[in-house]
Design brief:
- There is one protein chain.
- This protein has 21 helices and 8 strands.
- The protein is of the alpha/beta class.
- It folds into 3 domains: 84 residues, Up-down Bundle (Four Helix Bundle (Hemerythrin (Met), subunit A)), CATH 1.20.120; 186 residues, P-loop containing nucleotide triphosphate hydrolases (Rossmann fold, 3-Layer(aba) Sandwich), CATH 3.40.50.300; 143 residues, 434 Repressor (Amino-terminal Domain).
């Protein structure tokens, strides 16, 4: 998300952030380069101009040029303005109404609306612990209900029965009745997509909303269509009181500028973003966190939250105990490799780390690490359960069998064994540290290099 834009912004900041004092020319040049970066990210011209003007006024008002930490102050001003541009506060679903909360999903055909409906349902079920009911209102697209039903089964969520002979309005009313009688917390209505803005179908949406009185009306837009996403939002706003937007395909960066423009031009907040094809590739949109990522400050909070959602707490606790006891085997290593893959691999982790823009310049090296992890996973999967639990029994003949089974070489198997032994040795050292001395080391990091601790 915003990868190329972020890299350009951080390069601009690299030129000024280390300077104690900057000139007016330095400031003008930096603002000019930021403006170009915004336009290249497909941010609307008037929004880019307004953004630069606000940063300039703020910088001059605080007399940044005369400041002894001018570079850092400009970085902070740009960060604050980015937060304002993106929407200031996160806008999650509002549950302050009597159940069932009704969410009406609208959007153009091909925007990823049905998939986003399932992703949103899964998130509300797993994170907010809500009882969800899905309903397809699309009587126009062949296979629309089948897609919805398949996705609902995948995330173990109830789905209303469908009859293409009934009108979308009738289907919506029946779904609302079922949600009320079934004690559901949330009803999500997936309306028919539009190839283009069709007045007859837009009137249909208006009639559905008037009848069911949806508390949330969310527009799903493909971020890859660029500034057309803004026009789509404006057209829907003329008919419906939109409460939020879901931007899909934000894992591609070519046209992500619409995310920087949406709130400023439509006053409609971005609630969620789709960042991949998997059901779990769906995130809440936090303006402050996104702004921090863009300027290279990282977003450790989101990384921790993502890890908590994906990782199995019980399994992590078992692994922590194994590490404490020095009881490390290939089952644990396999578990860690798979956890890393779930979170998006090294590239998925790097984007949350401060200075991610600089790190991504060396992604070729990270690519080699990712390749090594795949090889290691293949090798471990070619072991028997006994071999994984007891790596010490791996004899030469066993290693040759594992190499053949995994499609690797005996050298790669030996390299994995060497890494295992190094990890085991390191864990043994940590296990011998006195708890009191460990606390001293945490309080004073310089003590970590003291050999007497081990």
């Amino acid at each position: 998300m915003f990868d190329s834009f972020s890299q350009k912004i951080t390069k601009i900041f690299d030129k000024i952030s280390g300077k104690k004092i900057i000139s007016q020319d330095d400031l003008d040049l930096a603002l000019r380069e930021i403006r170009i970066a915004l336009l290249e990210a497909d941010v609307a011209l008037n929004v880019a101009k307004d953004f630069i003007e606000k940063v300039k006024v703020e910088a001059l008002g605080k007399e940044v040029i005369k400041s002894i930490s001018a570079g850092e102050m400009i970085v902070k001003i740009v960060h604050d303005q980015l937060v304002e541009l993106l929407g200031s506060e996160s806008n999650a679903i509002n549950f302050n109404s009597n159940p069932p909360l009704i969410i009406l999903m609208v959007g153009l055909q091909g925007s990823g609306k049905t998939t986003s409906t399932a992703k949103l349902a899964a998130r509300l079920k797993n994170k907010n612990h809500k009882k969800i009911l899905l309903a397809s209102l699309d009587t126009y697209r062949p296979g629309a209900f089948t897609q919805m039903q398949t996705l609902a089964q995948k995330v173990n969520i109830d789905c209303c029965q469908f009859d293409d002979k009934k009108s979308p309005l009738t289907l919506a009313i029946e779904a609302q009745k079922k949600a009320q009688e079934g004690g559901y917390d949330v009803l999500i209505l997936d309306s028919a997509g539009r190839i283009a803005i069709d007045q007859e179908m837009m009137q249909e949406l208006k009639n559905i909303n008037q009848k069911v009185n949806a508390q949330e009306i969310i527009l799903v837009v493909d971020a890859m269509i660029g500034q057309d996403a803004i026009n789509v939002a404006k057209n829907f706003q003329e008919i419906l009181p939109l409460t939020g937007v879901i931007l899909t395909r934000l894992d591609g960066d070519a046209r992500a500028g619409c995310a920087l423009t949406m709130k400023a031009t439509t006053n409609c907040p971005i609630k969620y973003v789709g960042v991949g094809e998997k059901i779990s590739d769906f995130e809440e949109f936090h303006p402050k966190r996104i702004a921090s990522q863009i300027i290279g400050m990282g977003d450790v909070v989101s990384l921790v939250e993502k890890a908590q959602e994906i990782f199995d707490a019980e399994e992590m606790a078992k692994d922590a105990k194994k590490i404490k006891d020095g009881d490390i085997d290939f089952n644990m290593i396999l578990s860690q490799i798979r956890n890393m893959k779930k979170i998006g691999g090294l590239a998925g982790i790097v984007k949350f780390i401060p200075g991610a823009g600089k790190i991504k310049e060396h992604l070729g090296q990270l690519g080699n690490v990712e390749k090594d992890l795949k090889i290691q996973e293949s090798i471990i999967l070619s072991m028997t359960k006994k071999e994984r639990a007891n790596p010490e029994i791996l004899s030469s003949s066993r290693k040759h069998r594992i190499a053949k089974g995994s499609g690797t070489s005996i050298q790669e198997v030996n390299r994995l064994m060497k890494k295992y032994k190094q990890l085991r040795k390191m864990m043994d050292k940590f296990g011998k540290i006195d708890p009191k001395k460990m606390q001293e080391m945490m309080d004073n990091p310089n003590l970590a290099n003291n050999p007497k601790l081990f």
